[in-house]
Amino acid sequence: MSDPYKVLIIDDEEPILRLLQKELSSPERIIVTASTAESARQNARQEHFDVIISDIRLPDGDGLELLTDFKDMDPDVEVILVTGHGNIDNAVEAIRCGAYDYITKPFRLDRVELLVDRAWQRCCLQRENRSYKHTQKDSTGAQLVGCSSSIKRIRFLIDKVAPTSVPVLITGESGAGKDVVARSVHLASTRSNKPLVVKNCATLQRELSRSELFGHTRGSFTGATENREGLMTFAHTGTLFLDEIGELPIEVQASLLRVLEAHTYRRVGEKEERTVDIRFLFATNRNLALEVEEGRFHEALFHRINVFNIHIPQLKDRREDVPLLVEFFLGKLSEQMGQRPYTVSERAMQCLLAYDWPGNVRELRNVLERSIILSENGTITRKCFPQEIADQSAADQEAGVLSLERMEREHISKALEFYNGNRQKTAQALGIGRKTLYRKIEKFHL
Ligand SMILES: Nc1ncnc2c1ncn2[C@@H]1O[C@H](COP(=O)(O)OP(=O)(O)OP(=O)(O)O)[C@@H](O)[C@H]1O
Ligand SMILES: [Mg+2]
């Protein structure tokens, strides 16, 4: 079952409030009540509501004003106004101002319940549409292909961490698969049917970054001609993936820390704090610890986002993944081109296995894309590759050396596992010095 949705009911007549609360309470809905406009505003600032039912006449204000304020705070909230008998003009005005619908007193309870459910459905649809716009267009899917022990370990970590709300820091070189891992975490989480909002922090403009993340109110700075929602609103109830987190302007780092710690933030130009429910994912190809040391990254923020780290090793350190990735990409490509499956000659595969892939998986994909154009009869040969890859002619010879390295890596990794990560015992068992072991752990990204 999906999470319950939240309904705020505002009426100054206590009996009506109680009646509606009783009637609408169910496992699918959480009901909150308020008897004045001011307390309703207060409530709406502190938590997000999905549907609001408000009397049009309140002791300290009117429902239409409230409607505008609610829509300002959250454009997707749906508001149903309750009018006294014969106040149809007001009701029409309400719809024009963006109310979902109106009901006239005295009302039938079953109609109210129906309306509330419909309003909730529309609210969901709008949130979905909005988040869709914010989700990267070229969603590359989230199939994490590979059979190496590192990829297996990553899959294991994803399964463990996904159902929690712990923030995850994904590290690895460019093209190694950080996006794929982030999407996998979201898809394996309980939020998979909620928005996944992706933002590359390198594209945040320094002066506007706060507003882009948290939103702003009309007139809060020059150029702020309208209220604006921030990414926090779009990602609410879902996942926010902040890519290249090392590029996050230092000005907003403390505010992000506040969201992580207290789940609250402030819009630019607003005093009140708002509450959000967001699962955070981060990625970087920088060494954040170093950035902290050099004063470019907020230390406390670093510790908060580095609670759970998933590191993706370079492709050259997990060459056993190459054949599977080749098969995966060629399968996709032949499907796209409506061709029968492409194959790779043995010599060509040797080259792919021997090459160092500075651009990691992305480079492999690009090379394959290019090579199928040059292929003949559906077979990819060495000649279809760029020079530096085709030149891996000493491939056979090197393959021996490489597999030795691979064996060493596997061996050390198994030993570490056996001794539960105890480096002293592992070094002893392997008959090498502790320093040498440290070097190898670093080299092999163990
Ligand atoms: N293990 C994998 N299985 C399937 N596809 C992968 C895998 N790793 C990477 N890819 C594909 O390789 C390409 C690059 O991966 P991705 O965008 O995730 O890299 P990245 O680490 O986010 O790089 P950057 O730092 O440049 O953003 C994408 O097309 C992605 O789908
Ligand atoms: Mg990426």
Automatic annotation (TrEMBL):
InterPro entries: AAA+_ATPase (IPR003593), AAA_lid_NorR (IPR058031), CheY-like_superfamily (IPR011006), Homeodomain-like_sf (IPR009057), HTH_Fis (IPR002197), P-loop_NTPase (IPR027417), Sig_transdc_resp-reg_receiver (IPR001789), Sigma_54_int (IPR002078)
Name used for this protein in its record: Two-component system, NtrC family, response regulator
Keywords, sorted A to Z: ATP-binding, DNA-binding, Nucleotide-binding, Phosphoprotein, Transcription, Transcription regulation, Two-component regulatory system
Annotated Gene3D superfamilies: 1.10.8.60, 3.40.50.2300, Homeodomain-like, P-loop containing nucleotide triphosphate hydrolases
UniProt-listed GO biological process terms: phosphorelay signal transduction system; regulation of DNA-templated transcription
UniProt cross-references to CDD domains, sorted A to Z: AAA
Domain Response regulatory: 6-120
Listed PROSITE patterns: RESPONSE_REGULATORY (PS50110), SIGMA54_INTERACT_1 (PS00675), SIGMA54_INTERACT_2 (PS00676), SIGMA54_INTERACT_3 (PS00688), SIGMA54_INTERACT_4 (PS50045)
Entry-annotated residues carrying 4-aspartylphosphate: D55
GO MF annotations in UniProt: ATP binding; sequence-specific DNA binding
Residue ranges occupied by any Sigma-54 factor interaction domain in the UniProt entry: 144-373
Domain of life assignment: Bacteria
Pfam families reported for this sequence: AAA_lid_14, HTH_8, Response_reg, Sigma54_activat
